Each structure stands twice: as structure tokens, then as C-alpha cells.
Amino acid sequence: MDDKYYDALLHVKTSGGQKGFSPSVHYHRYEPTPYEGLDALFLHYQLKETDRVVDFGCGKGRLLFYIHHHFGASVVGIEIDKSLYHEAVENRVRYLKKSGYQKGEIEIHQCAAQDYEINSLDNRFYFFNPFSIQVFKHTLSNILHSYEQNPRNIEIILYYGSTEYTYFIETNTPFQMKKEIIIPGLFEKNTYERFLVYQLL
Question: Which residues pair with 127 in a beta bridge?
Fold first, then answer.
């Protein structure tokens, strides 16, 4: 199903890229995960209502509303760009108005990824190659510190994961590969069109 169909279904506007430039050289331009990709991911990867998913570089919030709609899980969006943050908040207003859910189930924060204080309930973390390896390392360090304070089942999902990301996580952290999910029709043309799921053992 195309982007227009899903945006209409969720009563949000998440298509299109980012206007202007990122406020930091460490942050990449916003591009939403294609709905086609999300359908492929969640065909093979399930979430529970008790999960709390953090999307680093959430942009306009597409992943947040998709997950909340399909699984009822709590979601948290982290976005450094002020304009994108406001678009995500506006999308939340539209989504909640139509769905009747509570605002507290969908949090959106305007801050740098490394400045977000990991909640003890956060247990699923999503990255669509949103920033430099330096920021990624810092953010993973925060996640691991949170685990040390509150041990729990933690998983990381990388979409379009850069070689730097995958090399670092596999050689410098206790995370281990759990699953690889390719996007049919896209992976054959570009091997980055896949999701890598890592579990903290």
C-alpha cells in the first residue's frame, strides 16, 4: 500500500523530505521509512502492548503512529529539528483526534539523541541511519547505562544501517544479531534495504 493510503488511514502527513538543512553536521536529513518497509518488518517482527519503542530521528512521526495503530505499544519520538518536531506534534493531534487514544501513549521530544534520558521502560530502539557514528556511539552508551540500572529485554532495530553502525555494534557492544529482514523488491536492487534486529543478551 502506498504512502498516501497509510497517511490517510492514520490521519497524518508524513510524506516528503526535510526542508532546509539539519541543525548539526552530525545529523542526517530526514527521510521517512517507507510504509512498504514497515509492512515487511512487522510481518516478521512483533511488538507487544507492553513494549515502549523509541524512534531516534523520528521526523514527522510516521513510525510512531504506525506502531501505535497496529500494536497499541507506547512510542517515543526523538527529533532535534524544530520544524520536524512541530510537524510530528501536529500529526499527533490529528491522529489522537481520530483514534481516541491518550496523548501519554505517544511522546515526542525535541532534543539531540544523546541528550534523551532513557526511560527504564524503553526497551525497543529504532534507528534509520539518523546521525553520525559519534552520536550513535553516545546513544548506545546511554542505552547500555540504562540497562545496567534496570536490566530488561532490550532490542535495537536498524533500517538502512551503515557499515559504521553495524561494525561498531557487532564489535564493541554486547548486542548480538537476532534477525535480518529484507524488503522484497527493494533489497535485490540495494542491499541496504533491510532491517537488522539486535538483542542485548
Answer: 56, 158
- The 3-state DSSP class for residue 55 equals strand
Q: What is the pLDDT of residues 124-147, one digit of tens each?
A: 999 998 899 999 999 999 999 999
Residue 199 and residue 178: Cα distance in Å, rounded? 6
Calculate ∠ Cα 101-75-92, nearest 5°: 50
- Measured in whole angstroms, the distance separating CA 17 from the mean position of its chain's CA atoms is 16
pLDDT the model gives residue 24? 56
pLDDT in tens, 34-79: 999 999 999 999 999 999 999 999 999 999 999 999 999 999 999 9
Q: Could you report the per-residue pLDDT of 75-119, keeping only the tens digit for each?
A: 999 999 999 999 999 999 999 998 777 666 899 999 999 999 999
* Identity of the amino acid at 51: D
Which long-range contacts link 181-190 to residues 24+ away (Cβ below 8 Å)?
Answer: 181/40, 181/41, 181/44, 181/45, 182/40, 183/34, 183/36, 183/37, 183/40, 184/40, 185/36, 186/36, 186/37
Query: Each residue of 122-146: b (16+ CB within 10 Å) or e?
Result: bbbbbbbbbbbeebbbbbbebbbeb
Burial of 110 (0-12, 13-18, 19+ CB in 10 A): middle
